[in-house]
Design goal:
This protein is mostly helical. The protein contains six helices and no strands. The chain is 83% helix and 0% strand.
Length: 220
């Protein structure tokens, strides 16, 4: 069943990516994409940003106006500023409620598409062999472990295939991380090597200048 083999690999890869990136980071990315779509929530976010700009402008005008010399203007600006702040608080509470609802929905969908599928697949295809082992190559106890819990003896069960895919994905991730670490370390070392000759050259020039100054003093 090559299609099921591929599905298991993709599910394990998706679970690993979610765990590596983090649920909160994914939710924020999806939330920003959702705000880019013309919806009521995106309009509310734009309205909140506009109110914040108005609040800053009113705050600047309020600070530039004397409460003693221009009391009427100052009081008017203060009322406008308080009104804008009240509107900001209302839109902020509505925006936060929409964000919390979005996070719950995104979390349910994400779990269903990754971990949920990972748990459901063995329950549905527990008796299906992923592929068969060569006959007589492995002892009985090895075949029994690889076909656990319900696959035919001599085959690889979906549970064993999931474990193998998880291990391979983690090994690939560790290998890529190690390679990137070595590359960054090599670049850092190369930059330091380039800085050291330049520093040494500057020190030599300084020493030469000092020695020349000393010679001139002796000649004088």
């Amino acid at each position: 069943m090559p299609s099921l083999l591929l599905v298991v690999i993709l599910v394990e890869l998706a679970v690993h990516l979610v765990n590596t990136i983090g649920a909160a980071t994914l939710n924020n990315m999806l939330w920003n994409l959702y705000l880019a779509v013309p919806t009521q929530t995106s309009k509310l976010g734009a309205e909140q940003r506009q109110l914040q700009k108005e609040s800053l402008a009113l705050r600047r005008d309020l600070n530039a106006t004397s409460s003693q010399d221009q009391f009427a203007k100052w009081a008017k600006l203060r009322r406008q500023h308080d009104k804008v702040l009240e509107q900001i608080e209302k839109t902020k509470s509505t925006h936060e409620a929409a964000k919390a609802k979005f996070d719950r929905t995104a979390g349910i969908i994400r779990w269903s598409a990754t971990s949920g599928v990972k748990f459901i697949l063995p329950w549905i295809y527990g008796k299906e062999p992923m592929f068969w082992l060569p006959h007589g190559w492995f002892p009985y106890y090895v075949e029994w472990i690889l076909c656990f819990p319900r696959a035919p003896l001599g085959s690889i069960s979906i549970g064993s295939w999931q474990v193998a895919c998880t291990v391979v994905v983690m090994l690939i991730n560790d290998t890529i991380t190690a390679i990137l670490g070595l590359m960054l370390g090599a670049k850092t070392a190369q930059k330091q090597e380039l800085k050291e000759p330049a520093k040494a050259g500057g020190e030599k020039k300084g020493a030469a200048a000092v020695s020349q100054g000393a010679k001139r003093e002796k000649e004088l």
